[in-house]
């Protein structure tokens, strides 16, 4: 039995943000922190006070986290980024909203006394006889304290208060993982109502000391148990009254916490077997109400997407995804009399097919759309077909300027769009063999079912439209409109590029609808593109005919067609890309300039690296030898976004490889990928050093023993949900069971 927590986060938009730039605008982005650890950075939206992000994330993490915070920042190319404000949502608030916390939340000013983090190791005890009793507080160490100084560390000391008396520890210089091992004693006052207070401060020579957090110990409770020892979370000082409430703008968020207790797989076998039996039996159920039908009829709009992806992953694990979708196709067709409405609603069949394409076809999507989308971003052409939106501009070189006419702009825009659409259709036409066999087989079954249900000649296009309604309208088109959300690009498009992508997506939708006349009636200004669209419709039909021409043996030979419990990552690359590497030698790490750029490739067997992707000579770290993958303190190398991989060499000795990423998102994606592929390693470490061993001591906690226990706990359980994650059959079964259990409760 295992307890798992996941946090779904959707950062929608902001409004009424204050201007931070001299232009009267801002360049806002969001940083998401879970317990003060940066996990996510959204893309920057340039020159706006009402940014729209629309970015979604899912984080898997231990159930012990306390809060999730959203910092809205203003990006500045010439100086440090400005903090606009923050929103903090505690775990208690999320627990009180099982369906998720959603809405607009006002940004608040950041109070330094509330920006605390970390834990402190204490022992509080009562000693002596009744006549002379003492309250003793032993302060051992602290970890993960806030970084208050420019060097990326703090100079912490402890102040212990009890009964109007104060004692202080020594100062530990340049450390967020200090060790004091000091003891403080006070005469115990039986009548005192004041709790013992342990405060941690950052010492400063020329300015006031910075508050790092505090812990209060109840000596009345300690008197009963005689002693209390352990790690205690540092708490902020009392919150100050908010005088700026609403003045910093607001943020629209959707946050949902899901806690699951997942039992061993054997407990779910009866449910899984029953579901599989129904799917194998096919659409003919002899009038019986089956579980799939029950699920179809009881899912609401707010939970249908989640249920759909759970079912898809469950049946992918059982090798029955095609059969499951075929059953949903039949159920949907039985309820549809008018072909024009087929698969146009957000039914369980539509959501399941949409989820299926995302889980199994994202690499295919990237291969097909990537070149054209990148070309649009790189060329930054001004494209507009709607006369009401055309911007007339000057063209020509110096001395020969003239005003371009509206018709010239539209004609030029049409040519550019025709070029993009033609390139994209050529790429699609060539992609038959690169499309995953499981997707091809599923489309073949869909094509066949629709053809059987609408055999009349007047409906001859319906079977093609059924395929394109998913492939073009629900897969290609959304990815073209929002390439950032499908990981096609790292940043959101600017206004000009976004308009071009929207027009291209509209063109693909029109091709998918296979009705150029209807599109012309709806948006007449798309007429200049109609000849190209008409030709593209013929090309799309030809492509679909070839796409569904697949033999059953081809499906059985693909990894997704077999009865496996994971996606086909065994022979594929899980993650790859350029990183800067430095592996520590005898005297410790050098400066950040010592990092060397190499190409890394992570599979389920090893992490390999070479000079280029095509290099024949490469080095590797076997995954079974990896003991931890963790972040490194910024001060260690004077650089951000550095991670360390701790692994055992051939002699069993622990070694460290330090890798620098280009941003916080890339850092967390690599950490997440490494943690997932090492999840079954038996010898993973429980603690590590977030610093480096430099000279004769660790930079983080100043320990002199290189091989001693780490000063911070590892974070193996923190990972990001990705489209290529291995399947988790037990979790998917638990989520389906929970849905059915909820249905049973409603029907009572």
Automatic annotation (TrEMBL):
On whether Metal-binding is a keyword of this UniProt record, the answer is yes
Q: Please name one Pfam family that this protein belongs to.
A: RasGAP
Q: Which residues form the Ras-GAP domain?
A: 303-513
Q: Where is the C2 domain?
A: 1-105, 116-232
- Domain PH, residue spans: 572-679
The superkingdom of the source organism is Eukaryota
Is Transcription regulation among the key words of this record?
A: no
Family annotation (PANTHER family): RAS GTPASE-ACTIVATING PROTEIN 4-RELATED, RAS GTPASE-ACTIVATING PROTEINS
> What name does the UniProt record give this protein?
Ras GTPase-activating protein 4
What lineage does the source organism belong to?
A: Eukaryota, Metazoa, Chordata, Craniata, Vertebrata
Gene name as annotated: LOC115636608
């Amino acid at each position: 039995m295992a307890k798992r927590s996941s946090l779904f986060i959707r950062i929608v938009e902001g409004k009424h943000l204050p201007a931070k730039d001299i232009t009267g605008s801002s360049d806002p982005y969001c940083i998401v922190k879970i317990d003060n650890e940066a996990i996510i950075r959204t893309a920057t939206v340039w020159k706006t006070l009402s940014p729209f992000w629309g970015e979604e994330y899912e984080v898997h993490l231990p159930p012990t986290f306390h809060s999730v915070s959203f910092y809205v920042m203003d990006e500045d190319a010439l100086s440090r980024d400005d903090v606009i404000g923050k929103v903090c949502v505690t775990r208690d608030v999320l627990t009180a909203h099982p369906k998720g916390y959603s809405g607009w939340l006002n940004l608040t000013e950041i109070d330094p006394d509330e920006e605390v983090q970390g834990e402190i190791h204490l022992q509080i005890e009562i000693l002596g006889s009744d006549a002379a009793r003492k309250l003793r507080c032993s302060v051992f160490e602290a970890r993960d304290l806030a970084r208050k100084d420019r060097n990326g560390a703090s100079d912490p000391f402890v102040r212990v208060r009890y009964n109007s008396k104060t004692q202080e520890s020594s100062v530990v210089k340049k450390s967020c993982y200090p060790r004091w091992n000091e003891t403080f004693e006070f005469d115990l006052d039986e009548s005192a109502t004041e709790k013992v207070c342990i405060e941690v401060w950052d010492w400063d020579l020329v300015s006031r000391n910075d508050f790092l957090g505090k812990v209060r110990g109840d000596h009345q409770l300690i008197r009963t148990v005689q002693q209390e020892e352990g790690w205690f979370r540092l708490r902020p000082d009392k919150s100050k009254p908010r005088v700026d409430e609403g003045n910093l703008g607001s943020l629209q968020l959707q946050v949902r916490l899901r806690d699951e207790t997942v039992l061993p797989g054997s407990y779910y076998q009866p449910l899984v077997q029953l579901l599989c039996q129904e799917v194998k039996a096919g659409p003919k159920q002899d009038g019986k109400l089956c579980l799939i039908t029950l699920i179809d009829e009881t899912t609401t709009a707010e939970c249908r997407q989640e249920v759909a992806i759970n079912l898809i992953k469950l049946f992918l694990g059982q090798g029955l995804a095609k059969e499951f979708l075929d059953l949903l196709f039949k159920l949907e067709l039985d309820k549809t009399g008018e072909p024009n409405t087929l698969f146009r609603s957000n039914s369980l069949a539509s959501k399941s097919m949409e989820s299926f394409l995302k889980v199994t076809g994202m690499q295919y999507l990237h291969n097909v759309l990537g070149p054209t989308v990148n070309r649009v971003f790189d060329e930054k052409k001004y494209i507009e077909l709607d006369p009401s939106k055309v911007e007339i501009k000057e063209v020509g070189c110096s001395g020969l300027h003239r005003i371009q006419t509206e018709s010239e702009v539209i004609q030029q825009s049409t040519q550019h769009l025709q070029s993009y659409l033609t390139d994209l259709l050529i790429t699609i036409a060539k992609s038959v063999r690169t499309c995953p066999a499981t997707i091809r087989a599923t489309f073949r079954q869909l094509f066949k079912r629709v053809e059987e249900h609408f055999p009349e000649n007047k409906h001859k296009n319906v079977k093609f439209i059924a395929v394109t309604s998913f492939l073009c309208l629900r897969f290609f088109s959304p990815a073209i409109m929002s390439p950032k959300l499908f990981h096609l690009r790292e940043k959101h498009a600017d206004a000009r590029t976004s308009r071009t992508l929207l027009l291209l997506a509209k063109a693909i939708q029109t091709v998918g609808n296979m009705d150029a006349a209807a599109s012309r009636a709806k948006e007449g200004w798309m007429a200049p593109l109609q000849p190209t669209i008409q030709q593209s419709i013929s090309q799309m039909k030809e492509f679909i005919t070839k796409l569904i021409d697949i033999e059953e043996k081809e499906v059985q030979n693909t990894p997704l067609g077999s009865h496996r419990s994971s996606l086909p990552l065994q022979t594929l690359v899980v993650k790859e890309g350029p990183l800067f590497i430095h592996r520590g030698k005898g005297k410790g790490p050098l400066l950040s300039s010592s990092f060397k750029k190499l190409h890394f490739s992570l599979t389920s067997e090893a992490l390999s690296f070479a000079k280029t992707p095509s290099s024949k000579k490469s080095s590797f770290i076997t995954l079974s030898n990896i003991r931890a993958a963790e972040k490194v303190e910024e001060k260690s190398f004077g650089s951000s976004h550095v991670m360390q991989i701790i692994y055992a060499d051939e002699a069993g000795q622990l070694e460290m490889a330090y890798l620098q990423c280009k941003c916080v998102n890339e850092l967390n994606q690599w950490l997440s990928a490494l943690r997932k592929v090492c999840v079954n390693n038996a010898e993973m470490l429980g603690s590590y050093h977030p610093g480096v061993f430099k000279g004769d001591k660790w930079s983080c906690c100043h320990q002199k023993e290189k091989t001693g226990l780490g000063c911070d706990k590892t974070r193996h359980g923190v990972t990001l949900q990705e489209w290529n994650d291995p399947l988790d059959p037990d979790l998917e079964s638990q989520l389906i069971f929970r849905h059915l259990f909820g249905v049973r409760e409603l029907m009572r």
